[in-house]
Each structure stands twice: as structure tokens, then as C-alpha cells.
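input
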Amino acid sequence: MPNIPPPFAAPYAPDDSEIAARLLQAVHLSQPQDARIDRTATRLIEAVRKRDDRLGGVEDMLREFALSTREGLALMVLAEALLRVPDARTADQFIEDKLGEGDFIHHETKSTAFLVNASTWALGLSARVIQPGETPNGTIGRLVKRLGAPAVRAATRQAMRLMGNHFVLGETIEQALERGRPRSGQQPRYSFDMLGEGARTAADATRYFDAYASAIETIGKAAGSSPLPDRPGISVKLSALHPRFEAISRERVMRELVPLLLDLARRAKTHDLNFTVDAEEADRLELSLDVIAATLADPSLKGWDGFGLAIQAYQKRAGAVIDYVHELARAHDRKLMVRLVKGAYWDTEIKRAQERGLDGYPVFTRKAMTDLNYVANAEKLLALRPRIFPQFATHNALTVATVLELAGDSGGFEFQRLHGMGEALYEQLAKDHPGIACRTYAPVGSHRDLLAYLVRRLLENGANSSFVAQAADYRVPVPALLKRPADLVVRPDQAHHARIPLPVDLFAPERRNSRGIEFGDRAALDRLLADVGAETSDQRPIADATPDQANAAVAAARAGFGAWSRTPAATRAAALEQAAHLLESRSARFLALLQREGGKTLDDALSELREAADFCRYYAAQGRKLFGTETAMPGPTGESNTLAMRGRGVFVAISPWNFPLAIFLGQVTAALMAGNSVVAKPAEQTPRIALEAVRLLHEAGIAADALHLVTGDGRIGAVLTAHRDIAGAVFTGSTEVARIINRTLAAKDGPIVPLIAETGGINAMIADATALPEQVADDVVTSAFRSAGQRCSALRLLFVQEDVADRMIEMIAGAAKELKIGDPAGVATHVGPVIDMEAKQRLDAHVARMKTEARLHFAGTAPDGCFVAPHIFELKDAQQLTEEVFGPILHVVRYRAETLGRVLQAVAATGYGLTLGIHSRIDDTVETIIDRAQIGNIYVNRNMIGAVVGVQPFGGNGLSGTGPKAGGPHYLARFAAEKTVTINTAAAGGNAALLAGEE
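output
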């Protein structure tokens, strides 16, 4: 029985400086070695710069359209989306929009490369015909005189296809094999990559599996008789083979995906091919290695040396992954192939870590650290030959030269390059070192799929810091390109990028970011699950307050107002910051309460806890500025004028059940920071969470007589809002109840007091034909079905351009089908229960009505209890949806491109104005919608839920609320009264300050 290593484990986001100290210490090349590296790299760089290929490549493209120019950025966006746009009108708008962003007409072509010249000619031709802004509607109809719109459209599409044809080896595997067939001499090595986004649906996964299986058979039959490693290969993406390839779905992934990967591996073994599992994002690394380890353990793969995987050098765990893979190979007595890449999703990894509030980043923030780590791991891989066959994927001449020097003369490795890139470099290398093998990583697929891939490659290699971009720039001297990564890093304390703050410091110096965890970090997730599971909570019901008790709470709060309002703002702020600290230190307790009483999934519970902590810190920071000092106002000499803000009195805070911690604390802490005393009434369904939150605030330093909790249903809320002594009310809930509170406050004799209300909305999303269907599916499913649709920001009404509606609706429905509905305590659950049976009955009734009035596209299956499965209905007209449906029910309406104005009228006609989503690559369309929509929060090309405190201040208008926005800079002022003090400083006999002045 082999000694199988335990599952992979390594710190997810270790400190950069500690890694740098180790890597810098390991640099040990001699002076003669460095001199040889310089000579080799210089020859390669000069070959790149001398090359003026008839066709051209990425280097030519970067010379011509740098991503730092308007033309480069416009070209990138155009390439990413144009070929998937089916209708002429949208294509014309899109072309006009993008060509208007760059100066293609006056663009002087610097390259003689055919690809660049042909593309530039076509784009310049289009730009001459399409002069943006010359028609009222921004369309091109009357501008196209001599050539006509079809010719312009064809020219621009041809420019995109020219690029696509150069960077893809073939649209089918048969075309790729034919194009890759040697015309003379030695058979080239290829690794074929079947293009496409990750699977969103079971149908996607099946289609990708069939494509991989078919490609393996086709490649195998054409592979010839050479032994490995001199044989072709295929790269497989795990996320393409499973629609929920994510850490929380591990059990399902292992059960369903491992047999599929094993099947493909066996097919590859039959033909003795190189079979590489591609790298995924950092949060999927542990899951990927689990799948690989389970597959590799199967005895049927014994005796085959072609199985491999890609490892990303920008990941801090790269070295640990190599060690783990070597242990697997040794345990199973196999030889493995390992492709070392630098990594292609750096910007995504940085953003994800910031959004999740991690302690650090899983990737390096400086490119020099990635390069340093690449060389260190290249040396590690070379030392593991022949058990490991290293494959070094790079277009960096210095990296190539360094690997050559480290490798010595023993062979047993290869280089890899992307098809369409690095030809000049590797042609020169082949001349200088004929025995060195190079494999071409070749994309195969339709141009529609290819161009999104191309944009990623351009982003990866077109950034100003990229070696490929710098090598293509003659203004960068060669010696600058030879500077070693260690010399760029210099010291361990400079390993982290100075302008990229750690996630916790994202909002520094004003405040700390709330702390989260990455569910793809198994150790962190296991600790969290254990801590939450160990929490016990009091399940005894909490008695509702009586009207007398409610009135007594208002009286007590009024008595405590004076002392609390005179408490220095800095002291009040410190109490809020301490509350945030206590929340995070007791996270397991609150997460358990949110799951048990609020029905939250773990992901939703953690997000809510973080939002609550953010509210505490944000309002503390804002309060220090607004209430800490008086503001001196301008005025005449001999007089001082100051403006100060202070508390109003007793605020009643009425919060909802759907965010029983975050909104509860957001309301209460804002009122307290402004110097008010507070009587807080939580939703009747979630009183225990509120009770724990009030106890925590008191412990943090909020005076007991400044904050009072009153539990009960709407009748108790009515008693509180009718009390003559309240100075204001803050409410989140239904529009109907907000109206009742508004009337109650207005009907009272006495001071006119403010109402701050945030209600719901019939929230819409508009997706046109330029939108990426996979991104739309992700964002629609998240916006409509996360939290069982029980968010005031949730998507209710999706408008899809009819030209792409069938495909998008099918993908959205397929993605919804993959969601797991059930017990929110289960980490794999995506959709938990609705809040109570009353809510379920209301939603079930709506579903029943929609089944008779609308077209059903999807109906999920819900378990027994308070569960409502996701549903998707297509309406004939948006007017069929007359009210907010607070649950996991999505309504879809098709629209024609020319009727966008009517879509916006339909959105406005609802009277609501809370959230709106837009999916489009046409900036003019986006700007038009933003300009016309009277909506509080608009989200472009992303989901439309999860507003972050201090980043996306949240709140609507019309039927969706009064404003100001929660979590925004104007919120606290609404809780405050203003006081202006004017003092005549010259009253005691003259203006001494003025008289003392000199001419």
C-alpha cells in the first residue's frame, strides 16, 4: 500500500516579506553564470526587436495599440465582445462606441506586420465612416453614405477575425491539427487548449467533456509514434467540467468530477498523450489538488508518464504545491509533467482578497516577486527530474536564459509558449540551442470564444510592467530588461507593492476593513465551522413588550439623552470601534445566531457580520469628523461664526428580519454616534440577534440609559412611533409600513421630526447583446436567488435583448438548477429557507398565479419546511409585475434593441428606485441608462446586491425610501440638529485683532 500524503495544506496568504527573505537568501548564481545569462537574454531580446513578421503577433499589436492608449483599450473591449453580437443594430452601436474612444483615423501605423496593418486599416476605415455623436441617437444610419452600414460592420468584424485567426490555431481540433502539421522538418510539440468559459450548467459541463474526449481521440490518432515527452497534449480546465467547481461544494465535486477527469485521463493514456490539468484561481487550488490526487491514485493510470498540471508562480503556495505533487508522484511511483506559469488572473485575485477582507493576498503584489518565485520554483522542479518533467511557460527572455543556465546539459525539460506569441524569441533559441524543446500552447475554438481569451492575454502581457510589453518598446534599453528580480525587490520589506494596501488596510487610515475568511482555505473554513458548531444558544422565546413597557423605554431614553449627547464624539466613536472589535472576536456566536434564527447560509451570515462591523467603524470615523469639532464659517471681521451638530433626542429604530444584525446595528450606531439616545425595535422574527447586539454595544461602552431594546410585532412599533417624545424614526421594511409611520409622525402635534426610511423595490437588470452570457448568468443567479431572494436589493425583473434572450435564459435556468436548496447550516447550501410560513404561503401563491399568466422557464424543487425553490417566469410585459415579490422568483421580459427607451419607461413606471443592474459593453448605452434612471444604486457589469459600507452607500428614492443613503457620508447628518453660534468679538471695546494689524 503506497504511503499517500495527506490533503494539500499550506498557509493561504502568507506574509510577502517572509517569503522574500527566503528567496533572496537562495539566490546563488556565480558571476560567470550571470554573464552567460546576460548574453543569452540579450540575443533573445534583440531577436524580438529585429523581427518584423509578415503576419505579426502580440508584440506587434502592443507596439501599435498599447493598453495605455485609448485606441488600445477600445480595441481590447471591441475584441472581447463584437463577434458574439448577433444583431446589426447593436453591432453598429458597439462599433461606433468603441471607435469613438480612440483616434483610429489619425493613427499612423508603425509596423509592417500584415495583421496589424489589416486591422488598423479596417478600424480606420470604420472610424472615417462612423463619426460618433453626429446623429441624435448615436447610431450610424445616415453617416454611412458611400460604403453603407453592412460594409462598415464587415470591415470591423474582419479586423477582429484577423486577430482571432492569428491567435487561435483552429476553430476545430481538426483544423488545428492540419494547421499545426509540419510543412518540413521536425514534428512540433503542441498542447491544445479547448477554449470557453467555465461551465455554468450541467449541459455546459457535458458539452465540454464531449469536446475534450473527442479532441483526445482526434489528437491521439494524429500523434505519430514518438515517445513522451515528444508527443502532443491537451489542457483540461476543471471548472469547465463541473458547474459548481467551488470549495463549498467539495463533496459533490469529488463525487461527480473525479470520474469524469479519470475517464479523460484514461483516454489520454490510451494514446500516450501529455494531459495537463490547467490552473484555476487561488480559492480553487486545494479543491483542484484534491481532484488531481484522487484521479492520480487510480491504478489504471499506472505506467503512463503523461499526466500533469499547471502551477502558478504568482501564487505564494507554488513551492508547497510542487512539494505536494512530488510526494504524490513518489507515492504512486509515477512520473508527472508540471507546467510552471506565472499566472493570468492577478487582478482578479487582488480584488477577491480585498472584497473578502483577508489578512493578506494569496498572490504576490509585485511582479518582481513573481519572477523571483518563478526562478526559485524552476530550480526546484529541475532538481526533481526525472520524477518530474518540468515545462517552463514563459515569454520573458531573462527567465528563459536563467532556466537554461540552471538546467545544465542534462535535458529532461521543455519550454512552452502561447500560439501567436514569442515566435521570434523561441526561433532564436532553437538556432542557438537546437536540442532544447519548445511546446506551443494552442487555443482551439470559435473566434467568439477566442477573443475573450485574447483580451486576457493582452491584459497579462500588455501592462506597462510586462516583459513582453517592455521588450516590444524600443525606448526601454536592453540593460534595463536584464535587471534581476532580486535586484528589483532589493529587501524583504520591499516585497509588497507600496501602493496596494493589505485587504485589512483597504480603507486606512480612516478605518479598518472588516475581517473575513476565504472558504477556499480549508483550514480557515474548518476552524470557522467548528467554532460555529460549538456555539450553544438560548432557544427560549423572548416575550413581546407591552405598550406600557414601550412607553417606559422612550421615557428612559429621554432621561438618558442629555448625558449621552454631551459625551465627547471621540468617546462615542471609540465605543463603536470597540463594538466592531467585539463583533469580530465573537463572530462564531453571531454567525450561529444568524443561521439558527435568521435562516442564513454561512456565506450570507459572514457577509452580514462583516457589514455590521463596517457600519460601526464607518460611522465612528464619520462621527469624529462631523461631531468632533465646530466648523468655523466665513464672515466679517470682529465676529466669530461656528456651525456645530448635535443629537436631536430619542430616535426610534425599527429594523427588518432580512438583515437582523447589519441593518439593526447600522441604524442604532448611526443614531448613537450623532448623540441621540435610541429605542430599538427589531423584527418580531429575529429578537435574539438584536438582544445579543444590544448587550454587546453596552459592553463596548454605550451607556445603558442611551440604548434600550423593545421587542414585539408591528403593534409595538406603532406605539413607539406615536410617542410624543420621540425626535425621529429610522425604518427599514415595506413601503406600506413606511407610509403608516410617515402618517403617524405627521399627525402628531409638536415638533416635526425626521423619518429616514429604506424600503424595497421592483429591481430590474438590463442585459443587451454585447454582454457576456456567462457573466450575466452568474450575476443574475446571485442577484435573484442568493439569500433566497430576501434582500431589498435583489433582482426581480430581468430585461434581455431578444436577439440573445434564448441563450441567456437557458443558461440562467441551467445555472439556477445547480443551486443546492436546504438547511442553511450545511456549508454547501446556496439557498436557505424563507423567513416563515406566512412568507412561504405568499410566495407560493404568486408562483401559482404566474404559472397561469406567464411562461415558466424553470421551477426548482424545494424540501419540506419554509423553503421556496428558485423560479423563472417570462412575462409578456413588465406591467404584469405590479408589486415587489420578496423571494427567489425571477421575472424575465424580452425587448428589442430599438425599444430600450420603453424599457426605461417601464422601470420608472414601477415608482420604485432602489437598485438597477446593467450588462453592456457599449458605454453610450450604459451612460444613457444611468442618466435617465432615477435609481439609488446602479451596478454595471456585476451583480446588484451586497452594497459595501462606505463604498456603495445604499438607499433609493420614490417608493424605495427617503434617503440619505445608509453607509454614506450624508447619513449621520440626518440624525442630527444643527446649531449656529455667532459672537461679536468686538463688543468689549473694539476689534483688537484688526487694530493690531500692520499695513
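quick obs: DSSP finds 37 helices and 25 strands in the chain.
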